[in-house]
Amino acid sequence: MFGNYLIGLREGLEASLVVCILIAYLVKTGRRDALRPIWIGIGVAVGLSLAFGAGLEFGSQELTFEAQELLGGSLSIIAVVLVTWMVFWMRRTARHLKAELHGRLDAALQMGTGALVATAFLAVGREGLETALFVWASVRASSDGTYAPLAGVILGLLTAVLLGWLFYRGALKINLAKFFTWTGGMLVVVAAGVLAYGVHDLQEARFLGGLENKAFDISATIPPDSWYGTLLKGVFNFQPDPTVVQITVWALYLIPTLAIFLAPVGSGPSRRVEKQRATETDEKADANRAEATG
User: Fold this and answer.
1) At residue 201, does pLDDT exceed 70?
2) What is the 3-state composition of the chain as percent helix, strand, coil, each rounded to the nearest 5?
3) How many angstroms separate the CA atoms of 236 and 254, rounded?
4) Under a CB-based contact definition with an 8 Å cutoff, are residues 121 and 128 in contact?
5) CA distances (Å), 192 to each of 76, 84, 222, in order?
6) What percent of the chain has pLDDT over 70?
7) Rounded to 5 degrees, what are φ and ψ at 218?
8) C-alpha separations of 97 from 18, 124, 160 in Å
9) Which residues, 6+ apart, have CB-to-CB distance to 106 below 8 Å?
10) DSSP string of 97-161?
């Protein structure tokens, strides 16, 4: 349940922050007349995301078992790709997200109502569709026959809405860059479990081989129906009898992705390039000043 709560919190908070930034900017600049188109765009985006999630859930029930497993495994892998891209993108842009959204909103205000609706829809809709897909894949992977996974997601989303409101009111101040770094790291761990489960689905669909080739089986030590087995599955999508292919894919994704994600931002060649450019700029400025004084 914690893993699904984290997904709802992390994904929901991004959307909440986007909404807060858009609304606060319009209020502070005296453009309350533009709030209605913004709320319309947000409402359409939320409705589309819910419809997308419902379509995934109920549409897959009409398929055969093999088709369900093939669809579930494929979408799980797509969800992992999207959420991995998202956590890296948010870590890189968290510091200047507000300025980026303000720029888009200024351009939309000049273009009219339709542009405002589109701006809000695109800003929230992208987050909503990614969230719906990843939540569906994660709930499916950690489902134990109860409503606990879905309840965890809903609690996470409600917490995100509350935090967003507190941000808007100015009652809560945290370092967003650090927050998204650490929650993003935990989300990568959850994504690794979803990826392994998606691979297992593809094996059950007979799309991939090796279903009978188990890496290990500790079901006797950690029974899946025990409280600690349920906890491990809910948080990490842990499986006591994974296949060799699952373990291989899990390790090949988790280790390098987590190492790159937790590496200091701006380290490596890109930082050296920035220093070189700064030095060249300073040299040109000194040359211009010398020429002007000469």
Assistant:
1) yes
2) 80, 0, 20
3) 12
4) no
5) 10, 10, 20
6) 75
7) -115, 30
8) 8, 13, 17
9) none
10) HHHHHHHHHHHHHHH-HHHHHHHHHHHHHHHHHHHHHHHHHHHHHH--SSSHHHHHHHHHHHHHH
What is the chain's Cα-based Rg? 23
Count, residues in the chain? 294
Single out the residue of 34, 36, 14, 50 nearest to residue 123, CA to CA. Answer: 14
Tens digits of per-residue pLDDT, 48-68?
Answer: 888 887 887 777 666 777 888
> How far, CA to CA in Å, does 116 sit from each of 12, 69, 83, 91, 202?
21, 40, 27, 26, 42
Average pLDDT over every residue of 179-195: 80
CA distance 143 to 126: 25
Cα 255 from chain centroid (whole Å): 19
Confidence of residue 279 (pLDDT cuts 50, 70, 90): low
User: Which range in 14-28, 33-47, 86-100 is most confidently predicted, on average pLDDT?
Assistant: 33-47
pTM for this one?
0.64
Taking 60 as the threshold, does the pLDDT of residue 141 lie above it?
yes
Task: Report the sign of the C-alpha dihedral through residues 237, 87, 83, 153, in that order.
Answer: positive
Segment 255-273 shows an average pLDDT of: 68
Burial call 88-120: b when 16+ CB within 10 Å, e when fewer: eebbeebeebbeebbebbeebbeeeeebbbbbb
The residue behind tokens 């390039």 is 273
CA nearest 86: which of 200, 190, 2?
Answer: 190
Q: Which of 138, 249, 143 is nearest to 186 (CA)?
A: 138
Residue 243 DSSP label: B
The structure tokens listed for 120 are: 């809000």
pLDDT value for 273: 43
